[in-house]
Structures are given as C-alpha cells and as structure tokens.
Amino acid sequence: NIALTRQDEHDFYAQRHGRLTPESTHSHSESLHSYDQQNSLMNTVVDSPTTPKPPERIFKIILIGDTGVGKSSFMHQFCDHVFYPRLSATVGVDFRTRNIRVDKYVYSIQLWDTAGQEKYRSIVRTYFRKVDGVIIVYDVTAPQSFRNVRSWMDQISEFGSEQKVPVIVVGNKIDLRKTEMENCVTTEMGRTFAVTYGVMFLETSVCTSENVDEAVRLLASKMKVEQDAQMATTVQLTEKSPAPVKSCCK
Fold it and tell me: Rounded to whole angstroms, how far apart are CA atoms 89 and 115?
C-alpha cells in the first residue's frame, strides 16, 4: 500500500470530467426517463458469480451535493469497485449502471452523477423529476458542504416530482476524520439532520469503500417499499372507480 498525505487524499476526491457537456446535456435530459431495460443491462456489474438474474426493477438514482464531496468517486466505487486517485470535476451529468441483489430481489441501479457547481444547477434540476431516489453527499471534513445539504433538500422539494422520492444523506470521507478531528461534521449532527427532515442517513468512505454498497442498498429497499405502496394505491383507486351508468333512453 502507498502511504498518502492528507493533501494527497483530499486531491483524490476531485471530481472526474463528465461525459455530458453543458451543451449536450439538454439534448440528453430525457434519456434518464426513456432509458430502457435492455440498455440498462449493458456493461453492468452483477452481485453473483452465477448466471445473472434479470433485474425485477430499474431504479434511477441521482447523486447531488457540493462540488468536491466525492460524488464521482462514489459512483465509480459503487459501479466499478475502484477508487480513482485524481478525478476532475464533473461537467453536466454522467451515469453508470450496476445490478445489485437486495434480499431476494435483483435491481438494476442507474446511478447519475451531477455537477456540484452553481453554474450547472439549472441542468441538474431537470433530472429531479425523473428519478426514483436521491443521494445527497457531503464531506464530513467540510462543514459548509453539510450546511448546504439543506439547500439541496429545498431544491428537491421545489423541482422534484409531485410524489416524494426517497432520500438518503451520505456523509463521505470518514477516513479523513483522524487528521481533521476539530473541523469534522460529527455522526450525531448527520443523524439529527436526517431525523429532522425525515430522510435516511449513512456515513461512507469512497476511498476504503466503507458503507458505499450499503447506502445504495438501503435506498433501494426504501424505493421498493414506496413503489409497492404507490402501485397498491393505484389498484385500489381503480377498483373503487364507479362503473359507467347505462342510459335506458335511446
């Protein structure tokens, strides 16, 4: 193993250059909604050494948060099981896909990485209405990124779909707490925020992979519960709809 300085490790969390530029993102904004199951199975990682089982559902998850908090690194760690040393900032939106098993179900996870810079906010907002779940990432060594989670929550409420989507708040870079104890956002602060806003919470390290898969699985379980409830409600409303009245007049 190569010993890293604190600055080196911070540098490792710089975002990678995205595949979609601001100019091209608009034309691709509907791709999240129309991306079909056949394409989602291409270039995926399946959590089973045996023959992959086709996914029961496709979940679209968006990663949001300030720039430099580790969103791109989270995506690569989850989808590729690797931690890339130096990633430049994402421009626009990028995504990758992986199949995961949660309990007895297999889900296709489309993980969408977004730019955290203010100038790309209008682009990112167009994706809020087309997702099944949201991961808000902050850096535990950067208190301002934690304070800004409130702003990201407000944007989800303002620009998201009418149906409330499951959200998990992720405190990233916990491996750096040992070197920056005084300035770190504590676990209790993150939990308190999550309880206040009624969202899920977990701390991760994309460098060591700690809790990265767990965060997505936790969100996937919640998304299934929410979708099942919505489908049950739809069925009940359909069954209760009155039959059309036949007229006796000709």
Answer: 7
